[in-house]
Write a structure and sequence with these properties.
This protein has one helix and 38 strands. By secondary structure, the protein is mainly beta. It folds into four domains: 142 residues, Sandwich (Immunoglobulin-like), CATH 2.60.40.2140; 89 residues, Immunoglobulins (Immunoglobulin-like, Sandwich); 95 residues, Immunoglobulins (Immunoglobulin-like, Sandwich), CATH 2.60.40.10; 83 residues, Immunoglobulin-like. Strands 14, 16, 17, 19, 20 and 21 form a six-stranded mixed β-sheet that branches. A hairpin with a 3-residue loop joins strand 2 and strand 3. The longest helix is centred in the first third of the chain and has 17 residues. Keywords: Signal. This is Por secretion system C-terminal sorting domain-containing protein. It comes from Hymenobacter daecheongensis DSM 21074. Pfam families: Big_7 (PF17957), Por_Secre_tail (PF18962).
Length: 452
């Protein structure tokens, strides 16, 4: 006879149910009960292991005991009978136990069962007060003692959005200090943490609002930034990516320990330049691999070495095309080859990824431009600026290779407040330095010349 968990009781299940009722009437407990039932304190049960149209069920292990909870749903609510049938292991009979109804209308049973035992469980239950009986023998549930099978049926994932940088296309000057900020909220709980990522790399996290992270010493390249919010129920949401460009102060699109590179669009052509650095200098091989668009292969092209030791390659590529670029190159003359395939660069044809002036900004411009006086300087200079909006600021000093020399000042300013920071030059060698101002609205960079 085919089992049906909603229309009638199978013979075996019916027999067990009748014996359970008879034993309950005559003796006050099932004949096969191996342990007394225990009524749990009344409480609101929000999480369950399984949810069906007629009931929800959960099993929780505490020490040597397992507590089973049967929660009637819909028309089943109000019934006065629930019998749980438990099989310990993968074979054998199902032993039935009468469950105890608590103050909130749920039924509970606690039994001592060894950790690691795989249980198969089904129920016989009354549909409403004095109503007919149904059972779930055809679709038993599985639970392994000692594990957590709870799932939150009502946990809504949090919302999160990046508030700084506010939109793709923001431009910073290397060595960049980028303030990442996000708004996060959870409609049915609280925010446990907000993490900030560059691609798949975790930059940092903030556990309390306002959610921010300051990323310092960022070298020239294109980056994809996201914020990931996790709520108290461990649900999470990732924000829409924001793409930012960090321009290298040395005139290149990106600078890495082994090399720097640039891409310049002239008319219909793009010229790629590979500039060896350190031990890479003197090598006689550089191959550029270029993917046009977001998918497809990376064709390789041998670059031509020029008189100054750089390598160049020119190719016609349609304006607006987003290219992904990496290099294979020789470390010194006759040395081994290395590749940057695992960390390619991004360049959009027709745009500039190099600093062309003294100031690069992201977001709204500052009311008063960043200024230095005197410049060139000998012993000291003054840094003047005025943010357009209230908030934190930081001023740093770096050399032209992007190495931070000092943090000149940091704090909070009112909108339009005129700020003057003194900078001593006595400990600096003659040369060119970069003064960088970072606020939540933008970044500005000014060249400083020290000449005694």
């Amino acid at each position: 006879m085919k089992k049906n968990s909603y229309n009638f009781l199978p013979c075996a299940a019916a027999a067990r149910g009748l014996w359970a009722l008879l034993a309950l009437l005559l003796f006050g407990s099932p004949l096969w009960a191996a342990a007394p039932v225990r009524q749990l304190p009344a409480g609101v049960l929000a999480d369950y292991c399984f949810n069906t149209p007629n009931y929800s069920f959960k099993a929780e292990t505490t020490g040597p005991n397992v507590t089973f909870t049967f929660s009637p749903v819909g028309a089943t609510a109000g019934g006065n009978l629930a019998i749980i049938y438990i099989r310990e292991g993968s074979a054998g009979a199902y032993a039935g136990y009468n469950m105890v109804k608590n103050a909130v209308g749920d039924f509970v049973l606690t039994r001592a069962i060894a950790t690691g035992v795989v249980l198969s469980v089904y129920f016989t239950y009354e549909v409403g007060a004095g109503g007919p009986q149904q059972n779930s023998a055809a679709t038993p549930h599985s639970y392994t003692v000692g594990t957590n099978c709870l799932v939150s049926a009502s946990n809504v994932p949090p919302t999160v959005s990046m508030t700084a940088p506010t939109a793709s296309g923001a431009v910073f000057a290397a060595p960049a200090t980028i303030v990442l900020a996000a708004n996060a909220a959870d409609s049915d709980g609280t925010i446990a943490k907000v993490e900030f990522f560059q691609g798949t790399t975790l930059l940092g996290q903030d556990l309390t609002a306002p959610y921010t992270y300051t990323w310092t010493g960022v070298i020239g390249d294109t980056y994809s930034l996201t914020a990931k919010a996790t709520d108290n129920g461990n649900a999470n949401t990732t924000s829409t990516p924001v793409s930012v460009l960090v321009q290298s102060a040395d005139g290149y699109c990106a600078t890495r320990p082994d090399y720097a590179y640039s891409a310049v669009t002239t008319g219909a052509n793009v010229t790629f330049t590979f500039h060896p650095i350190g031990a890479t200098a003197g090598g006689n091989l550089a191959i550029v691999f270029i993917r046009e668009g977001s998918i497809g292969a990376y064709p390789g092209y041998t670059m031509v070495k020029n008189a100054v030791g750089d390598f160049t390659f020119t190719k016609a590529i349609g304006s607006g095309t987003i290219t992904s670029v990496y290099f294979t190159y020789e470390i010194g003359p006759g040395g081994p080859q290395q590749t940057s395939v695992s960390n390619p660069h991004s360049y959009t044809v027709g745009t500039s990824c190099r600093i062309s002036g003294t100031t690069a900004t992201a977001g709204p411009m500052l009311t008063t431009p960043l200024s230095l006086a005197p410049n060139p300087g000998q012993d000291r200079t003054q840094i003047r600026f005025a943010p357009t909006m209230a908030g934190p600021y930081q001023v740093t000093l770096s050399d032209v290779r992007g190495r931070q020399v000092a943090v000149v000042g940091a704090g909070k300013a009112s909108a339009g407040q005129q700020l003057v920071l003194p900078l001593s030059l006595q400990q600096l060698a003659n040369g060119i330095y970069l003064v960088q101002l970072l606020t939540g609205q933008g970044v500005a960079t000014q060249r400083l010349v020290v000449n005694r």
